[in-house]
Design goal:
elongated; alpha+beta; two-stranded antiparallel sheet
């Protein structure tokens, strides 16, 4: 009997009773936005990694706050840069000094030290 009474007591709310009637509730929606969502992303100056060891170049980019790194074999052979310390930087895009968003793709082009 208690269960039946409890169900009946909440029935008007569940059925969508008009606002202000007994047993109804008023819902409100609160929307909040964080300051970072509305503010533009802070730009980061791309470091110059020309001629650096590829591993050191990656470290420099990450220290600057750039993590979206793409690596390319500068000989055009399409080799994977597996052992980063065996490669040296020959190019980068965007160029050093360019101010970019933190999620910008940075392309690091490198050749092996023994490439001629």
């Amino acid at each position: 009997m208690v269960t039946t009474i409890a169900v009946l007591a909440f029935a008007p709310v569940a059925c969508g009773a008009p606002p202000g009637s007994p047993g109804s509730t008023t819902a409100s929606t609160v929307t909040s936005t964080s300051a970072s969502a509305s503010a533009p992303a802070k730009l980061i100056k791309v470091p110059d990694v020309s001629g650096m060891n590829h591993q050191d170049a990656q470290n420099a980019m990450q220290r600057a706050g750039l993590y979206n790194l793409r690596e390319v074999d500068g000989t055009g052979k399409g080799r994977a840069l597996v052992l980063d310390r065996n490669w040296r930087q020959t190019a980068q895009d965007p160029p050093p000094g360019t101010e970019v968003a933190p999620d910008t793709v940075i392309t690091l082009t490198a050749v092996k030290y023994d490439d001629r």
